[in-house]
Amino acid sequence: MKFALYLIAFVLVALIVPFLLPATGKQEGVDPNSNLPWQIVLDGQGGSTVFGLQPGVSTLAEVRQRLGSEIEVAIIAEPNEVGALEAYYAQVPLGFVLAKVIVTVDVSKEAISAMRERALKAKHMESMTRKITLHPDDLARAEQMPVKAISVIPTVNLDEATVIQRFGQPGERLVISEKRTHLLYPSQGLDVVVDGDGKELLQYVAPRDFASLREPLLAQGSAKTASQ
User: Sign of the C-alpha dihedral, residues 180, 184, 189, 192?
Assistant: First the structure.
């Protein structure tokens, strides 16, 4: 499952201050103190709600209704992979935080393969990654499919101290490289990637599905150790 795509920051204080202070960065028609990335509501049964959406339950149509209609839906595939069905927002106000949002739809690999056969076109993105446009019939079907994960890339750069200030101490801290660390919050269904060379990434799943985020990281760490 691919949860990551990613960009550069603007100038220091002017953008970091809005993330830290709720009074700034207000968008017209948007409540700056609601829908924020750290406002995660747990249901006590392994589920959660963030941005008014329930990972694993809410449909793509509900995402569109909640976050806006300016959404791009496509299959994103690396070479020799079936790919993932994703929906992308270039910029969404989450309270007073502006962010890119990538939603991963919960759909089987077999269904994605069938969608690829009916697809209208494909084009290359960065490196050899392909973006495959769905047939209108499949796009309509996708609207009723549940969302498995929500990934958020804030326009501001976050350091580890700021993440901990907002989300609390992580349940686990996995260092992937000198510059990249994953702060894991299993009880909230959250993985925060703090990246010294790029943009930070917040990945949300239902807490009961947290293994889908953690296990690939452990496998990646094992592969790295084996190659050293």
Answer: negative
